[in-house]
Amino acid sequence: MSSILRRQVFRAAAGSMSTVARSQIQAIPARLTLAARSYASTSAVAAAEAPLKSNVSTSTSALVSSTKELIINSHRIVAGVVVSRQPLILRDLTPFEKEYFSYQQNLERDNAAPFGAEFYFKKGSVAERRWKQQEAEKNASLSTSSTQPSSKSSSKAAESSAAAEGDELTEEDRVAQLEAKIEFNDRITEADRKNDVRSLERALQRTLYLIVKKPREQHAWQFPQGGVRAVENLQEAAGRELQEECGGNMDLWFVGRVPIGHYIYSHPKNFKTEGDNTVKGTKVFFMKAHIFAGQVQVDNKEIVDFAWVTKQEMKDYVSPDYYEAVKDMLSDF
Amino acid sequence: MAAVTRSARTLISLRGSAIPAFQQIRLASTAAKKGANTKDNQESGKTVILEPKQEYTTGISRLREHYRGTVQDDLMVLTYSHTFKPKAKIPEGVRIELKGNKHIKPAPKAPSPRRIPELVKIDVHCMMKEALVSKYNLLSGFMAIQSITGEMPEIINSKKGVHPWKLRAGNPIGCKVTLKGDKMYQFLDKLVEVVLPRMKEWPGLPESAGDATGNIGMGFPPSALSLFPEIENNFDMFPRMTGFDVTFTTTASTNLEARLLLSGFNMPFQQKIRSAPVAKAPASPSIDSASSA
A325 and A225, same structural domain? Predict the structure, then answer.
């Protein structure tokens, strides 16, 4: 499936729903300059109309520094991004599923309406010959045993028969020979074998999430996250933080403008903030985004490392408290 | 003309799948009852019951996996209403009357993970004017719909007679297939990946698509039928191309949800290019300058 098309399409639909999915935290009238991203344009006005929250402790005078951090109820507001790479291939079937599907296939075959082969294939054509051959193979495999017919042997048989009738080599035969040469990619990639967690080509059947490592001892691994400034909404803050930490070389689509989860923690006693001593803790709001192309660029200032991990692997990276807070947002598959 | 008669003759002389169709069309006008939808198979002497159809899940469905893995989660985020207030309940036993000409819409329900919009079924329906002249003209459309959906269509008889059109009540006039489960997802997949991208100058579904109760319908011209790979390879065998309608029935309760769901399956939608809303007067110029700085 062309992921780019999917993104455009999703965006197109999301354009009409900006009034529904509006960021819940609108502290200061958002900037009136129109956002470049597609559906943000219509909601900029809506955001500006959102009333001021009464419990905003930042100075609500008109002269607000654009870099001033947003503090509500003596909690720092932080925006995080859960960037996910969706599964690229279908999952492996369980043995039970395999059995079940083959059983259902046989049932369907037995109960199917008769197939009008004369209608679909011209008499004496290559297509008809090939179809008859396939039918014979299927019947043979059904009658002998219930095991799966091996596709390799059948394709070999088809090749040998085509080679036998080499004197009447038609266009269709040539196409069939080309088709036989098509090789399928492995479901386990090079990145899986090397266990390269930075590659987006790993664990194709699973949903992967981006976590980044910050240059510190404790709580080093986290989702990309950073403080919300007083003049922006959650989505803008999330996009900006991602740009700052991971570089602009990622094609992302934010799913809606509302957070999908949050994490509240109180600061330790000796924790120093930049000036405001009234801040007691932090509230992290997580936005959801999908990645379609690109990769993270490490700048070694804000982050020193990154990894694309599944939910289960994330447990080994992040702190237990953090994992407990975010685990319900993540997909098990 | 010769080609038409040849293929028509092939259609009629078929021993395979066309015979049930043929039989069904013949039955459709003679025996009005649906219960007569059985026929004797001449080869084996067994009775083949055409209805009810059985559904078989013969494999893992790509679009269903995509729905469960990705679309469902995203729809939950996109359509969740954080400020939902339930309307007053209508007491039991109170009859809901029509409001003007329209039914009063059911009250919106609280957002819940159990109420995420889902595709229920796809109806493929065609009506052929040619069937007015001879009911056997319907065979071509019947076979075409059967080819593209992989299911045996059911014949639609006209409910009313319309004299100017020479239509009599009870005559077969069209056919219809209801797809559910795997077949539904396969058809949607084919439509979105193969057919729609090749429809020239089709701009996509309009932004206003939907019937306000979560169903979306679209019509196809006769030329679109030949874009299906099943028809394309046997184009000569179908003497009459017919237009057809496709209706997506979903559990969504609004147009928006239904459109979001379908767009999650890659269905193209037109995007209205809105002119940028003109800001009347910047509320606070200092903030504006601060953010641009």
Answer: yes
Number of domains in chain A: 2
Among chain B residues, CA nearest to A16: B256
Structure token digits, residue A290: 């999908």
Instruction: Note the pLDDT of residue B126.
Output: 93
pLDDT digits (tens, 9 = 90+) for A221-269: 999 998 999 888 899 999 999 998 888 889 999 998 899 999 998 888 7
One-letter amino acid of A162: A
Q: Is the dihedral of CA A55, A61, A62, A68 positive or negative?
A: negative
DSSP E strands: which ranges in A16-94?
Answer: 71-72, 75-85
Residue ranges making up the domain that contains A208 = 56-88+192-329
Partners of B73 on chain A (C-beta within 8 Å) are 331
User: Which of A181, A213, A242 delimits the end of a domain?
Assistant: A181
Assess A103–B contact: CB distance below 8 Å, yes or no: no
Domain-located, residue A68: yes
Same domain, A106 and A239: no
In a domain, A100, yes or no: yes
- Report the C-alpha gap between B32 and B28 in whole angstroms: 6
- Residue B237 has its nearest CB partner, among A32, A119, A288, at A119
For residue B136, the SS3 value is helix
| Whether B228 contacts B190, CB under 8 Å | yes
Could you report the per-residue pLDDT of B219-251, keeping only the tens digit for each? 999 999 999 998 988 888 888 899 999 999 999
Mean pLDDT of B15-32: 53
Task: Please tell me the predicted confidence (pLDDT) of residue B234.
Answer: 81
Distance from CA of B88 to the nearest CA of A (A): 22
CATH number, domain containing residue A231: 3.90.79.10
A324 and A201 within one domain: yes
Please give the class, per CATH, of domain B2-78+109-264.
alpha beta
Evaluate whether A81 touches A224 at the Cβ level (below 8 Å): yes
Contact check, Cβ <8 Å, B60/A118: no
Q: Is B20 on the interface with A (CB under 8 A)?
A: yes
Interchain CB contact of A146 with B (< 8 Å): no
Q: Does A224 reside within a domain?
A: yes
In a domain, A36, yes or no: no
Are residue A198 and residue A269 in the same domain, yes or no?
A: yes
Element (H, E) at B188: helix B181-190
Task: Find chain A residues with C-beta within 8 A of B65's C-beta.
Answer: 87, 90-91
Surface of B (169-198) touching A: CB under 8 A:
193
